Amino acid sequence: MASSKKPLNIGMIGYGFMGKAHSNGYVKAPLFFDLPYKPVLKAVCARNAEKAQAFADTWGYESIETDWRKLIERKDIDAIDICTPNNIHAEIALYAAAHKKIILCEKPLAMNGEEGLKMVEAVEKAGVPNIVWYNYRRVPAVTFAKKLIDEGRLGKVFHYRAKFLQDWTINPELPQGGAGLWRLDSEAAGSGVTGDLLAHCIDTAIWLNGSIHDVSAMTETFVKQRQHNLTGKMEKVTIDDACTFMGHFENGSLASFESTRYARGHKALYTFEINGENASISWDLHDLHRLQYFDYKDEGPLRGWKSIHVTDGDHPYMGNWWVPGLQIGYEHSFVHEVADFVTSLGTGKPVGPTFRDALETQRICDAVLESAKTSHWVDVKKDK
Questions:
Q1: Mind listing the pLDDT tens digit for each residue in 85-101?
Q2: What is the C-alpha to C-alpha distance for residues 166 and 268, in angstroms, rounded to an integer?
Q3: DSSP code of 104?
Q4: Where are the domains of the chain?
Q5: Which CATH class is domain 136-379?
Q6: I want to staple 266 with a disulfide (CB 3.0 to 4.6 A). Which of 19, 25, 165, 325 is the partner?
């Protein structure tokens, strides 16, 4: 039976890891959430037609394109989803904005803040809805943390610390560049862990705890040369393998962030902890359905860290899923982003992170990299 809801025709550019995550979100969101529009997998675009067709067959896209400009120019495409390497986010977004398309863009927003600013100005001038895929905001336990903070349960915040640890680039024989390893090539990625992993940490942090004023950072590239997949030659590695930075939030709290791809034993350990005058909270991606909570107001003999299993119907998003006690996973954060964004298209009220929200994260990343290069404290650039 055909849906009575107006279709939202999706044009996806890219078919990698994030292409799968986003496609799954489009498929699942209308099954579990009452949305004003029904996402339709209209077309997927990639330079390799054979791989694009295979992806389309797997996920149910109706057609393929090999030129993203032609995809954007199609009148039957409502929304463009950018799932490409970072170095072409801006070019695609500017073209899509000029054609009045709704835009969903993978993180980070751009290669740097100045490029990101052009993207922000373009979508705001065109008046097109936009969002960036910082999906961790929509893990129910993280969304619940936001609720507790906004209710004032922590009181004045003193510390925000976050880390994102991986270990997949330790092998010096691992090449850089090309379709699968573009994140190791600064020409395609812009930066290493700063734009890839710390960007997630920063987006979550400013959403939960407000803006960051200044930073002091250090970075390290442990393997100095790698063979490049596109040239076959040993070339200098110019991305950051690890980054640590301190900073000051505008609310007076201290920031401590660490990210690396050289933490043997950790595949994707993203954690944050926030310490306030009345309470503290802590979250761990490896146990993503739980929020650790310490409330100083508890009676002394009963005072201690408690583990809240975020699966009840009155927890964020969980009322749309299974019965209380049954948990969901990583992929559901993308389903939630689709649900929130499509809902916002019906209400006309934007949801974050918008391009402008993501520009703030980009400016912090820029300041971090500048600080590491100069060995000085750097103020984060503020946009009007």
A1: 999 999 999 999 999 99
A2: 5
A3: E
A4: 6-135, 136-379
A5: alpha beta
A6: 165
